[in-house]
Amino acid sequence: MGNSLKIAIIGYGKMGREIEKFATSNGHKVVCIIDKDDDWEKLSAQAQVAIEFSVPEAAFNNIMRCFEVNLPVVCGTTGWYKNLAQATTRCMENGQTLFYAPNFSLGMNIFFETNRHLASIIGNFEGYKPSITETHHTQKLDAPSGTAIHLANQLIEQHCGFSGWKLRNGEVTDNSVIPIEAFRIEKVPGTHLVIWEGQNDTLEIKHTAHNRSGFAQGALLAAQWVWQKKGVYTMKDLLNL
After folding, report:
1. Is residue 136 among the annotated active site residues?
2. Could you tell me what percentage of the chain is helix, strand and coil, using 3-state DSSP and rounding each to the nearest 5?
């Protein structure tokens, strides 16, 4: 996977462990792991980039702590984007580096482009109503997933008939709102389904992650791509989409 990096892993849950395994097997060195507040004392000056997969309530502060020590950060945590504008401003004002993505899977990012293009085509016709379903493992804390929210926002951007999305706890009666259903099932890395229901037919596009390796691969690719850059980047920049 190109040049070897010295990596700090922030968050040592399932994704943190998968990134550690994938990084070391591809010639990178994990120089420190931060999983609780006291662990910041272990942050190594050798680290060239941090990869952050923690929890929504900790992600913004973790990013700020990386900025404080001039450490580029690749963030895969979702559910913290209410602070994204603030993080972007701090990053740009202080010459730091942030790469964030709701999903690091290369296949999912192709799916994003398919979703955007399909919505732009359907926007030329009447009679199709979208909905989104996402299924993840029971340890995932945010619902709906950041990926599902991104998919919904793409539909809103590309189709003038929709103004928002809502997590479906019952029937969504507002036709301008896109319903999202979130399911939590053991040992499911992630499945996303976008449905366009019409009177005469139904269109569906679906992405199913078989394991977490694809997310780890994407995060490592992002780290290699971004660590010598300054600014705020996403997978669209990495993949030139």
Report:
1. yes
2. 40, 25, 35
